[in-house]
C-alpha cells in the first residue's frame, strides 16, 4: 500500500467570485444527493449525531508517538473538518481537524471499505466538510497518525469553500469572518483560549481573596461611573429613555454599601466613542471594590491579578508577544507621581497650584493641543501624555491625578489639589485605573454638581447628578479601594495583539 500525503507547495490562486459561485452550485448538488440517499427516518442532508468514541486531541495524546507503520488494533470513531484531501485510484487521504486545531489523517482504502464507499467518498467529500470516520488507529508508513477507515459519514457539508489554507487571511478578512480565521489560523484559536485562561485566572485570584462576583444592570436610567459618551436607547415597556452602561461602578458601590465588602464584575461596557487600535465601542471590563482598602492596596491586588493571568497563559510572568518580543510583567512595578514625573520631563515645576493660564501658555509652546472643555486637570493630563507616557517601558502605576478630572475619587490624604487615583500603563497604553473611593455623600454631590455645570457647557462626557447613588452613599459606604481594567487590553498586554484581534467578534462597519 502506497501512501500519498496531503498536498504541499505553492498555494493556488485565490478563487474568484465566479469560481465560488460555481463551487457552491456543485456542493449544493452533492447536498441534494445526500438527502436522496438518506435511508433513516430523520430525512435531511445530515445526521442528527454520529457515534463518536474519541477525539482527535485524545488520540494524538495517546498514540502520537507510534512508530511508522505501527498498528494498534484499537478502533476509534472521530469527527473533524476536512482541511486537506488527496484522492488516488485505490486509496484516498484526508486530514481532519478538530476545533482546537489538532489533526489526524484519515485513510480510505478500497481494500477496507469497498468500491461503492470509496467512490462515494471521492464524489461527495469536499474540503471544509465535517466528516465522521471509524476505524483502526495506526501510524502510516510515513509516520503520520491515522485512522484506517472502515466506515465514514458526512456530518455536515461545507456549501462554500474554505479559504486557501496556505496563505494568511488579510486583517480585514480575519475580523469580518472570524469563523474562517479560527479554522485556518492557529493564532486565532490560541487567542480565544488565552482569553478563557485569563478570565479563569482572574476569577481564581479573586476567589483566593474572598471576593464575590456579581452582575449589575447594563441598561440604566442614568449613565455614570466614568467620563464617556453613552449609547442611548429606549424601553417600550417602560416608555423611557435608557443608556447602555459605560461602567458598572455606581452599582458595585451600592453592593459595598449593602455589605458585600469585596465584590467584582466581569462584563460588557459600551461607550459611543471612537474606535482604534486600543479602543472599541463595546468591550469587556473588570471592576472590583474592596472595603477598608485604598488605592495602594488595590494596586497590589491589580498587580497580582495581571501577573497570575500572565502565568496562566504563558507559564511565566515573562510573556512573548505576537511579534516575538519578550515583555517582563514580573517583580514589583514602579509607582510614579503624575505631577513630579511631568515636572521632571518638562524641565519646569508643575503643581496643583499652577494656574490654567500658565498651562495654556506652556502647552502652546510645546505644541500640545487644547483639550475639549479645558480645565487645569485636563491640561496636566495632556501635558503628561506628551512628555512622559512615551518613555514608560516597564509596567508603571502613575499616581495622584488632578482633582477636577476625577469626580468619584477621594482627595489625597496629604497633598492638596490631587486625588488618590492611579492609572496603570503597560505596553504604552492605559491598562487599568484605581482609586481610593470617594464615600462622603456631601462631597460627592458637590462633585456631581460641578460635572453638571460642565455638561451644561457642552461636555458630553460629563456625569450627571445621580440621586439614587447618592442616597445609597448616605446610608454609609466604608472606606474602599476600587479598580477597573479592560479585559481586551489585558489580552493585548499579554499577547502583543491589537484590540480587534483580542475581541472574538469585534464591531466593524
Automatic annotation (TrEMBL):
It is an enzyme of class 6 (ligase). Homodimer. It catalyses: tRNA(Lys) + L-lysine + ATP = L-lysyl-tRNA(Lys) + AMP + diphosphate. Residues 195-506 form the Aminoacyl-transfer RNA synthetases class-II family profile domain. PANTHER family: LYSINE--TRNA LIGASE, CHLOROPLASTIC_MITOCHONDRIAL, LYSYL-TRNA SYNTHETASE. HAMAP family: Lys_tRNA_synth_class2. SUPFAM superfamilies: Class II aaRS and biotin synthetases, Nucleic acid-binding proteins. It is found in: Cytoplasm. Its cofactor is Mg(2+). This is Lysine--tRNA ligase. Belongs to the class-II aminoacyl-tRNA synthetase family. GO terms for molecular function: ATP binding; lysine-tRNA ligase activity; magnesium ion binding; tRNA binding. InterPro entries: Aa-tRNA-synt_II (IPR004364), aa-tRNA-synth_II (IPR006195), aa-tRNA-synth_II/BPL/LPL (IPR045864), Lys-tRNA-ligase_II (IPR002313), Lys-tRNA-ligase_II_N (IPR044136), Lys-tRNA-synth_II_C (IPR018149), NA-bd_OB-fold (IPR012340), NA-bd_OB_tRNA (IPR004365). Binds 3 Mg(2+) ions per subunit.
